[in-house]
Amino acid sequence: MSLFQTLRSKLGADVVSLLGAVLVVFVAFSISTPLFLTSANFSSMAFQIPVLGLLTLAMMVPILSGGLNLAIIFQANISGLALAAVLIHFGGPDAGLGAFVLGVLAALFAGGISGLLMGLVVAYLGAHPILVSLAMMIFLRGLGEFLTHGGDISGFPPFMETIGHGFLLGIPIPLLIFLAAAFVWHLKLRGTKHGFSVYMIGSNIKASEYSGLHTRRTLTVIYTLSGIICAVAGILMAARFNSVRVGHGEALLLVTVLACFLGGLDPFGGFGKVIPVVLALVILQALSSGLNLIGANQHLSTAVWGLFLIGIMALRWVAAWFQQSGRWRI
Is the pLDDT reported for residue 327 higher than 60? Predict the structure, then answer.
């Protein structure tokens, strides 16, 4: 058995292909600019990945179940507004750690309750997840604009800057938060009854019902947890930007879907893993940072992301064809 086949059997075809893509991207940009393989660039990437990563995790599980959550950005922002409201009430910049903890709980509640409502409608009324999450997105956006009058809320305690910009043991704190969330997501999907139910529902919800799985309860939990992860992203955005606004991160919605599909998730549900999605996020961020360092237009990265996804899908099709035809000899 070749080294490539050994890696494929140990890590999985998706992980190996994405690791190869990571290597290609890093080599290409290291040749293009000496600034790419520097600690400053890696530090910048490490601070930029977490918010997008958390939002992608929030999008991932609904997709695995055969659904979608279009409200993730506004769930994050309304959660950030809940945190900001508590902090402002207790003095804004003078608010203490207790007020921050209370604000975090308020943010998690705001994200969780919005997800719970979506989950209940999807699970018990049978409404399509796209329509339900679209309605929630519109509602949260309108509510947020009503509460803020379309403006920003700023003026948070100085210690929040540590959460958004600080280091722990030389590693950016936002990155540690994202990696912890990804690890918990990985364990929950691969090692719990709930994770098994998510995959079963995504594969065939009717068969899952006949098998005795609590599909309605699982769907409700899926969207509730998605909202809670959005709340964590909203807290992190507030700490990163030192302000909260309803429109923060609007451009990231489609990027989260892109990262999920680049990471090998089946768009119809039932298949996908956390580790390939994390690697997909590294690729997207490396492409964005590399293009920025070589002086390319910042909007070009979006086009390159789309082309990269098309290329990866084409390579996967070719690899599957070779494997099925018995011509895979690498």
Answer: no
